[in-house]
Amino acid sequence: MSSKAPDSDNVCKDLESMLALAKEKIHSAKSSDEVEQLRVEFLGKKGKVSALLSILRDATPEDRKKIGATGNKVKINLETGISRKKLELEKDELNKKLENDELDSSLPGLTNAFGRPHPVRQIMREACQILERAGLKSVYGPEVEYEDYCFDRLNFKPGHAARDMQATFFVKNAQAESLVLRTHTSPVQVRVLLDLAKKEFPLPIRMFAPGRVYRVDDDATHSPMFHQIEGLVVDKTSGMGDLKAHLDYFFRQFFSQSTKVRFRPSYFPFTEPSAEVDISCVFCDGKGCRVCKSSGWLEVAGAGLVHPEVFKACGWDPEAVGGWAFGMGIERLAMLKLRVPDLRSFFENRLSFLRATSLGSPSR
Ligand SMILES: [Zn+2]
To answer: What pLDDT digit, counting tens, does each position of 261-302 carry?
Structure first.
């Protein structure tokens, strides 16, 4: 042992007596500030415990072990004593303050941050409510769907671009059934038509199908998962005029009474004739702006009369019934109503965005 080396027994004794002294001081402390000062005095970087333990540098391994163990015990003891005393004094101090302070009723109260439905869900709910008011009933179907229901019975020929691996998520399963994540909500129509085909008085069918759909797509206006809502009405006489009236009603309720709806000829495998549905631009009231590319119109939905091949594939006689259908993306409606330029914002779950897009705020 060198002359500089500490005597471990002495150091341990010093540590113990320092602990006793500290305990006394802690016990008689009168305020939480005083306790905090004691913490700095004993446990701070330049405090008494550190000073005593600095001796460890020159100690033999054996002494280091002994002194280290005592040092740790003292530290833990002090930390516990100090935080307990501090808590106790802080509580007393708060109670005293509450007793002496007069109530200041002008101070803002404590508020709870209440949750609210996601903007997409709010828009979905609103769309459903409007369709219910129009006399349509909600029907739900599975998101993992037979390829047959998703494409074949809806008159998508084999080799159609939508069936491509690039556009559709295919699902492998042990039974080797041909399953996909549904790319649209239309297979719900197939299920309803198949189900009712054999019933005695199935008409009229007045339904809408809301839900999640999936496509291999991801950019500012497309997401691999998004929400659709679509309607189907089948009756003996329902035609384009009836369809237009329903969509007029829907968009006027959803956006504003002055919203105009127009049809443009289009093509979908499952409707004939088919139409793209435009509404007068909600940003410029049809005058022309950047969003509508100066056209005054915004594309919002697809629609048309149910294709005879779809009726046949679902067990119906296309000569005996008529029907129409429409479909639209909920995120698209939400982007227009809440004025959100990037679809991806809906799925990033930033609280500031979710709060700002709560319905009742920036909408029209
Ligand atoms: Zn516009």
So the answer is: 999 999 999 999 999 999 999 989 889 998 899 999 999 999
211: left (phi over 0), alpha (psi -120 to 50) or beta: left
Helices first, then strands: H and E counts in the chain: 12, 10
Residues with CB under 5 A from ligand 1 (ion): 281, 283-284, 289, 292
Contact 267, 276 (CB under 8 A): no
How far does residue 226's CA lie from ligand 1's centre (Å)?
Answer: 24
- 310 three-class SS: helix
Q: How far apart are CA 293 and CA 296, in angstroms?
A: 8
Using the structure block, give the residue that is written with the tokens 């101090």. 93
Q: Report, as an integer, the average pLDDT of 327-337.
A: 94
CA of 280 to the centre of ligand 1 (A): 8
The model's pLDDT over 98-118, given as tens digits with 9 standing for 90+, comes to 888 777 777 888 887 777 889
Reduced to 3 states (helix: H, G, I; strand: E, B; else coil), residue 13 is helix
What predicted TM-score, i.e. pTM, was given to this entire model?
0.67
